[in-house]
Amino acid sequence: MIKPLRDALIDDLPEIVKIYNSAIADGISTEDSHEVSVDEKVAWFSSHDMPTRPLLVKEYHGKIIAWISFQPFYPNVFAYKDTARIHIYIEKNFQGKKLGQQFLCEALEKASLYGIETLLAFIFADNQASLKLFKKMGFKEWGNLSCVAKIEGVEKDLVLLGLKLKNNENN
Length: 171
Description:
Layout lengths: L5 E2 L5 H14 L11 H9 L8 E6 L2 E10 L10 E8 L8 H13 L6 E7 L3 H9 L3 E12 L2 E11 L7
Parallel strand pairs: 4-5
Antiparallel strand pairs: 1-2, 2-3, 3-4, 5-7, 6-7
């Protein structure tokens, strides 16, 4: 049984890192090009403010199968206090089953509880599955940074997607 999203605990970090590391291998989901360790991600984990910018996990039979992170767009800049970046990573065995849509929908429903009015997703242009998912959930393309990243010597375009959660007619 897949459980509702819940706040991540520090004990979940090894599974979160495992899912993240599997995404690194595909070369289209993250800016990292080499696996990271749990120790390297402790500060990142701790940077999540659970009441306003949480790290959430999804469980299936007690095993973490996905995680979603809300992070400040520009930390400590008041003008952007209602804006957050969103990231979603799903364990490989659970991809392609429309679960990303279900999990993202659940996260969007919770976003207002965290004081989020605008969500941003930064997705590499060659990550067609993620672009399709976010656009299906109402995100619009707000920008494209051509050749802004380089991974393993390959230049990558970064697509900026946005979603206004309040006054959706303005997105």
